[in-house]
Amino acid sequence: MNGHCSWLPLDGTIFADVIVSPFFRRMSSGKISLHLTEICDVLSLLSQEEQLEVSMDATAALRVIESSSTNSDLLGGAYACLFATSPTFSVAERFDVMVTVNITDSVNPNKLSHSCSEIIRKALGKACDLASPRILSDVVGIGLLLNPERQFGRVLTAEDSDMDRDSFRAFWGSRSSLRRFKDGRIVESVVWTKGGVEGVREACEVAIGSHVDGVDRESVGFVHHDLSTVLPQANSASITARRAAERLGNALRSLDGIPLDVAEVAFAGEILLGTSVLGGGPRETRYRPVSNLILSFETSPEWPKNLEGIRASMGAFYVAISKSLMKGGFDAVSTKTHVEVEADGFFFIVMLRYDTIVAFLPEELRETQIWTTVRQPRLHKALRRVCGEDESAAFQETCRIAKHWLSSHWMGNHFCDELVEMLVARFFFSPDSQPHGRIPGSSSAAFAAFLSLLANFPWEVAPLVVVFDDDDTVHEKAEKAFRSLPSRSSAPPMIVSTPGDVLGKSFSPLYKRGPERVVLKRIAAVASAALGRFVNGFDNAGDEPLSPKALFRESSKAKFDAQIMLREECVPTLSAGIDAKNRQRRALRNGPLGSRVTSPNLLNVLVGANPTDELVRRLESLFGHVAVFFHNKNGGTQVGVVWRPRSIRSKKLTLTGLPFSRPAIPEGGHESDKATEIVFDKKYAMYAMRKLGGDLVLEIDVRT
């Protein structure tokens, strides 16, 4: 349609209102036989599945026109979103899996594709929303959209399909039999070797091999990128962690010896969401990931009116809270700023929320206080809405894959957990932006969309708006705030707008929660390359199968000015690396962080204290003005250093000149000559970095 209508002298709004909206309403209304004339039925030659796909796409296009999330003036309006600037969705983004069937000389490809499509829909029943036929080079491809709400189980019953009992038995033949279930039902059913995607594979092979003439099981292929295989361990802790958090929350709601009643208990942490790459944490080390628990008391006029008094009162509350928790059987230790608690093997930091303290804090501490006690718990609560109860649900698994991918390319330290989760959650909160206007049915499709977002979204000209509380005004507020910026550099390079933070300042690189421009450019280039390889795996229909680990190989090793080498035995997440070896695991267990304690408690574990992450934070704090640091948080044993060219240029000699600098010796001069400029001393800076790392640093490799 774009090719036939691009000449129309209409702006985006007129085009959408006058031409596109009526067209797509007609297409999505179910009246999908569009008669342009009395004798021309445009869609009459399409199969039922092809008509269904056209209807789904038309419905999605109509939502794009009517939705403020995509119909943005900053992005060019509805016309641009539908035709001009929006990249074409790849097969990898459109479908969860692709079933392929080899084409023989004696078979009509079109007839074969339609037959396979009908058989697959009949076989998968309610677990499949669409089986779209298409011809790919020398094979027939059927793209499947799996139902995210009805996962294909290991046991397929007649009730799960659209067939009655007799039709079900006739379709599956000897594989079908009557079975009694725990609830007393006796129904026809088929048992597969596995459930999920592997069950879909087996069912498609059997159905096509049994019901399509001239095709056997060996001719049926299956294209699905199971990226969960690169994750270091199964995600088996989130449900148990949430139960532990709930038990701790109930204990805090009934504290003894506290003069104020508890008004609210809020949580924040990737372990509780089930989005942690490490699952429940690297158990072979003393390091333990931590979740935050924010406690709000009822209002009281008795709080002190100064910062010192408020902090002293909070410290007294923390002592009382830890004593009360220990009486209740928890392992708890109080500090001046929080309480550390162990509950059922999971570790929490309990902090008080008192909003008045923000007015007394120094400017550099205010945002951190607001983020920790207000925004972070609010985002966690919103993200719980898209988390499935199943720990392998698409959202959780996609978040884990996305975090692992960013970290594997040495950029995980530039993206806080919440930022990655919000980028992924956009596809689940706002399905209008997705192919067919639906939420992803698998982690592979969602990850392809994540890569496409990083590679193609115009971060410089528009904010990415993520709405999670049904507030339709967020888009308007975000656009208005963006247009009122004095300059683009006054806002974060990657603006992710959320309710309450329309300019995404929470994810600013200033607070080390979002990428700066140089990092954003790198990650966009890496994402574009990864998306190309990911898509080729589908387009080639399995001829060149994609190795999941290939997407996670370190791509930036040779692009650093220097590399800080770390001691393997001091890296607690070493075993999470893509190519982790048993030797490394043994080295880690036997190193200074190793732990053979069967019942870890607060006296022998590092609660939320990862030595490598802490080193990177200190490097960024002391040297961030002259260098950008890159690190793989999950198993990385090096820290990459890239100098900032503008920051290390020679400057005029002043008393407050460039740190880690020395007098610049004029060309052809001597050290005794009077210098008028100073120059950054890289050798001295490297020495300081080495001293800062202490025993954690093995050596520093400087590129010449």
Helix segment tally: 20
The total beta strand count reads 23
**Low-pLDDT segments:** 1-20, 31-39
- Overall form: globular
Going across the biggest sheet, name each strand in turn.
Answer: 8-10-13-12-11
What about the largest sheet? Answer: 5 strands, mixed
Features:
704 residues; alpha+beta; four-stranded antiparallel beta sheet; 20 helices; disordered N terminus
Give a verbal description of the structure.
The chain is of the alpha+beta class and 704 residues long. The protein is 37% helix and 16% strand. It is built from 20 helices and 23 strands. The strands form 7 sheets. The protein has a 5-stranded mixed β-sheet, with helices on both faces. Helix 16 links the parallel strand 14 and strand 15. Helix 13 crosses helix 15 (443-456) and helix 15 packs across helix 17. The longest helix is centred in the last third of the chain and has 23 residues, at 517-539. Residues 1-20 and 31-39 have low confidence and may be disordered.
Short description:
The protein is of the alpha+beta class and 704 residues long.
Describe the SSE topology.
Elements: H1 2-5, H2 12-28, H3 48-66, H4 77-84, H5 91-94, E1 97-102, H6 109-124, E2 128-136, E3 139-146, E4 155-157, H7 165-172, E5 177-180, E6 186-191, H8 196-211, E7 220-223, H9 238-253, E8 262-268, H10 270-273, E9 287-288, E10 290-297, H11 307-327, E11 331-334, E12 339-343, E13 346-353, H12 363-383, H13 394-408, H14 417-429, H15 443-456, E14 464-465, H16 474-483, E15 496-497, H17 517-539, E16 562-566, H18 582-590, E17 606-607, H19 611-623, E18 627-631, E19 638-643, E20 651-652, E21 661-663, E22 677-680, H20 682-693, E23 697-702
